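Pilot study result, target chain (443 residues):
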Amino acid sequence: MNGIVAVVGRPNVGKSTVFNRLVGKKISIIEDTPGVTRDRIYGDVVYNDYKFHLIDTGGIDVSKELFNDEIKIQANIAIDESDIVVFIVDGKEGLNQNDYVIRDILKKSGKKVIVAVNKIDNPKRFDNIYEYYELGFDNIIPISGEHNIGIGELLDEITADFKKVEETDVDDDRIKFCIIGRPNVGKSSLVNALLNEEKAIVSNIAGTTRDAVDTPFTYEKKEYVAIDTAGIRKSGRIYENIEKYSVLRAMKAIERSNVCVIVINAEEGIIEHDKHIAGYALESGKAMVLVVNKWDTVQDKNDIKTFTKLIKEEFKFLSYVPIVFLSAKTKKRIHTLMPEINKVYENSKKEIKTSLLNDVIRDAVLLNAPPSYKGRRLKIYFTSQTGTMPPKFTFNVNSKGLVHFSYERYLVNQLRKEFGLVGTPIRMIAREKIEKNEKSNTK
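Predicted structure:
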């Protein structure tokens, strides 16, 4: 991943349309997945041999020529964390005072700024772009997010100084796990507790990335890297208190990890933002462990059963993920975490024999036949595993249109049950194969 690009601009200039156009058709969380917000403010862009994170600052409102404090902070965080800023202006309405307020903020940032003049969907409007040089930036590109005009040129300019994506850490056998979660759930304390375990030997040199601390260590003769996203690089606590910032850091840590340890605060309970962060780990296809930290603050320490039931209800989309209850502060039950990290990691790279896989699918179909639709029924001819981390299975079927999400979920559950794929997402791909009698009918 090359870096971070922020999309900024006043309301109604088409930021979301351009954002969606840049992100394109990247697969996101399945529509029927319960418990995960559909609101998107982050995305990954893949363009030719380049890849980068995209942030939509959405909701920058400079009405009355002033930002309110929280919006100003959020906008500054996005700009501060980004490598490049795409400043979107309205090609129909022209510049107004709000654009100049945003211009002043961007000038102070010192970041590379590309001005994307949106809504230039008519050749007559191309002459209007010269007005936008008044903003004082060199890179002015006419685009139309709605009509996909100029998007290629915009991407060319964004990626001009980026390095092409290369496979890294190919020979790195260490298990990398990140500790992610919203502010004040005890992420740093948890890392410290793990590293102070008797079985852990911490390496002398800890590498530091842009805003996460990587600590290599050995646990029971195995090599690991703990990625802690809680270390604050910026001065002031305000960065840690903005939820958008915690998601941004989580995304960057998730990308470099094999396993995501999602931390929840037992004292405060589950809130919506916990689900947002977990949703990004799921979308990235990473193995996961849910950790309920600060269990020492719960009065009834034996009430794990009730809390587990609550988590299962709130995180229905992570029903297969193991839950660990511990206290980083007192180190109670801290020994239960590393075995779960190992287990979900091994499951994420598990390879299943094709013959066994097809036996399980065949039995699953006999036990519960696919529903028919307009007189046709789904037929599964052959199944093979076509990837790991997470496990990916390709089904050769008579019609992809007959693969209902509920039946796909049923097959996923059968695979989990038979092969013990706890803690890892499973990807299903349907590939169409035309039957012989259907071929003859089309002649």
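One observation from the pilot: Residues 405-419 form the longest helix (15 residues). A full batch analysis is planned for the follow-on phase.
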